[in-house]
Amino acid sequence: MKVKFLHLCTFFLFLFSMNGVGQNNAAAQAGVKLHARVLLQGALINANGPLMRDDLRSNNLLPWVEPYSAMARFTVVGSGGEQVSNSGVFQVTGDNAIVDWVFVELRSADDPKIVLATRSALLQRDGDVVDVDGSSPLHFPSVAAGDYLVAVRHRNHLGVMSVEAIALNKLPKVVDFSDPEFPTYGVNAQAPAGNRVAMWGGNVNQDKLVIARGPNNDSFYIFSNVMLAAGNEHYANNYINAGYHLADVNLDGMAIYSGPNSDYAHLLYKIVLPSTLNCPDVNASCMIREQLP
What we know:
single chain; 4 helices
């Protein structure tokens, strides 16, 4: 009898453990996954891409906690506070080195103005958007499988969104915004970058417009960031304000208004003036508008 009793106990313990495994597996598979790709125009090493610079990472300027929760123009939905917990993430070099944080939105297929879920993610030099471990596809653990519009935003670039709803589930779905054939919402939503496209850079004041001169221009924000920098005691317009700044148009870790490699020159000559599709007369007051509803 004792032997039979022990066998029964072992059997029930086995069933209990298998049930736990099943629950854990279900939890691990919950939500939807996304393998997005996007390029940041400001960070491109050359205008034709396809690699971006990772100066923020190499100079230890990237924050370990996502920056978007603290920014008024970014509304976190269902997440927030994503952080890197493994120091090795920012030690990776090469094509998979981290460039910066990006902000990914899942929007309603019926109303593109409605944001249903957001997650902050990491962007690699080759354009892959990955989770906080630095390599995995982005995971929305609390989102049900279904059709969603996908948008990617960045702190000083203009956001971009798919024009069609995309079926998402537990298997990573590839959404390549760097592919010029991928349909995006609006008109001229991204900048040409050789045989790729990239998110428009230069939106340093986060008003969803890129403007070099005229009212509410981004150039003045760069000027103010430099002139009012704590270390700029003599108010020199060629002062280099090193750090993680919105005014850093080319993401090299330095906000520069005047002098070599200035962010003002990058804004004017590499972003605004070449944008002939948005500015046919090629004048410095050209306005590039974010194509998000």
